[in-house]
Design goal:
about 55% helix; Glyco_hydro_88; Glycoside hydrolase family 88 protein; hydrolase activity; about 375 residues; 6hp_glycosidase-like_sf; 6-hairpin_glycosidase_sf
C-alpha cells in the first residue's frame, strides 16, 4: 500500500509531537527542587525593594499577601516545617491584623494567610482580627457605585484584581464558622463585579470600567495578570465550598469559560501575553500572569474538572516557559512590576507576588505529576 506524502507528513508530525511531549515529561522531584530554590531565594530577599519603590513592601500589603498564599501552598508539599514557621512569624509580627483600609480588597489579602494558619493551628488570635473587621463591614456595607469615577469606588470590588484579594477570605470565614452571612456577602458582591467587568463575548475580565472602551492597536485590553488574579481567585474560593452547592457551581461556570479561552490564546512559547488578545504587540514573556493561569488550569485537571488529554500540553508548555525564566540562584524573572495594564517586564526584575503565583502553579503541577 502506498502512503501519500501528505498523509506521511501528518503521521510524522503526530509522532514527533508525542515524542516531544514525552521528552518534556515533568518530574515531580524536579518540580519540588525548583520550587524550593525559588521559595528560599524569596525568603532571603524578602526585605528587598521591588517595582521601583524606595522601601520594601509593608508586610501586610497585598504584594506580600499574594506571596504568602503561594508560600503556604509550597509549605504544604515541601515536607519542611520551616516554611510554616516563617509564615507564623509574619503573622505574629503583624499581630494578625489586616492592612490599614477597612473596605479595600487589597488590604484584605493577608487575611488568607491568617485564616489558613488558623485552620492548621486553631489559635484564636489568628482568626479574631479578620473576623472582627469583616463583621464590621457586614454591619456597615459600602453603598458606593462600581463606576470607576465615583467617590470611594474601591470600597467595593470594582477592579478585577480585587477578586483574588478579598473573596477567598470571605469564603474561608464561611467555611470556618458555617455562618451564611459571610457567604451571602461574598455572592452578592462577586456577582455585582462579574456583571460589571466580565466580557461575555471574550470570556475575560476588564481590569476596571476605564478599560472597557479603550483599544490597544485596535484590540480590547484584557490584562494577563488581572485575569490571572481572577482565575486564581476563583480557585481559592471554590476550595472553600462544597461541590454540590449552587454557589460552587456559579464560580465553576465562570472558571470553565475562562479556562477554555485561556488555552486558545497561550503563545507558542508557553506564556500568556501581557495583553491577552494582543500577542503580536506584547511579545515579551510575563511570568506572574502565566503562573496564575497555570495554577488555575492545573488545579482544574487535578480536580477532574478539565480533561487532562486536552489541557496537559498547555500545562507542559506553560510550566517549562516559567522554569526557563528562573535564574541560577532562584529568582523568577520577567515579572511585570505593579501596574494595572499591559506593559513591560524584564529578565532581571521580579516581584514578591510573582513568586507567590509561581509557587501556586508549582504546587498544582507537582500534585499532577506526583500522582501514582
Amino acid at each position: 500500500m502506498k502512503v501519500r506524502p501528505l498523509l506521511l507528513c501528518i503521521l510524522l508530525m503526530v509522532l514527533m509531537q508525542g515524542y516531544l511531549l514525552t521528552a518534556q515529561e515533568i518530574k515531580p522531584h524536579e518540580v519540588k527542587r525548583i520550587m524550593k530554590k525559588v521559595a528560599d531565594w524569596q525568603i532571603n530577599h524578602f526585605h528587598d525593594t521591588y517595582s521601583g519603590n524606595k522601601d520594601p513592601h509593608n508586610p501586610k500589603a497585598w504584594p506580600n499577601g499574594a506571596l504568602y498564599i503561594g508560600m503556604l501552598k509550597w509549605a504544604m508539599v515541601s515536607d519542611e516545617d520551616k516554611y510554616f514557621q516563617w509564615l507564623k512569624e509574619i503573622g505574629n509580627t503583624n499581630k494578625w491584623k489586616l492592612h490599614d483600609r477597612i473596605y479595600h480588597a487589597d488590604d484584605h489579602t493577608v487575611g488568607q494567610l491568617y485564616l489558613s494558619l488558623y485552620q492548621k493551628y486553631k489559635e484564636k488570635k489568628m482568626l479574631k482580627p479578620t473576623k472582627r473587621q469583616f463583621d464590621y463591614v457586614l454591619l456597615h456595607p459600602a453603598k458606593t457605585s462600581l463606576e470607576w469615577a465615583s467617590a470611594y469606588h474601591q470600597d467595593r470590588w470594582n477592579w478585577c484584581d480585587a477578586l483574588f484579594m478579598s473573596p477567598p477570605v470571605w469564603a474561608k470565614l464561611y467555611n470556618l464558622t458555617g455562618d451564611d452571612k459571610y457567604l451571602n456577602f461574598l455572592m452578592s458582591e462577586f456577582k455585582a463585579t462579574t456583571s460589571f467587568l466580565f466580557d461575555d463575548e471574550e470570556s475575560l475580565f476588564y481590569r476596571d470600567e476605564s478599560y472597557m472602551e479603550k483599544r490597544d492597536h485596535g484590540t480590547k485590553i484584557f490584562w494577563s495578570r488581572g485575569n490571572g488574579w481572577v482565575f486564581a481567585g476563583l480557585v481559592n474560593v471554590m476550595n472553600e465550598l462544597k461541590k454540590e452547592t449552587k454557589e460552587y457551581k456559579y464560580f465553576l461556570r465562570i472558571y470553565k469559560k475562562m479556562a477554555k479561552k485561556l488555552i486558545q490564546i497561550q503563545t507558542p512559547e508557553g506564556h500568556w501575553p501581557m495583553s491577552l488578545l494582543g500577542e503580536e504587540f506584547y511579545p515579551t514573556p510575563e511570568t506572574s500572569g502565566t503562573s496564575f493561569h497555570i495554577y488555575g488550569l492545573a488545579w482544574g485537571v487535578n480536580n477532574q474538572i478539565l480533561d487532562r488529554s486536552i489541557y496537559e500540553p498547555f500545562l507542559i508548555k506553560g510550566w517549562n516557559s516559567l522554569v526557563d525564566h528562573i535564574t541560577d540562584d532562584g529568582m523568577l524573572g520577567y515579572v511585570q512590576p505593579i501596574g494595572a495594564a499591559p506593559g513591560e517586564a524584564f529578565a532581571d526584575q521580579t516581584e514578591v507576588y510573582g513568586t507567590g503565583a509561581f509557587l501556586c502553579a508549582g504546587t498544582e503541577i507537582y500534585k499532577l505529576y506526583a500522582q501514582p
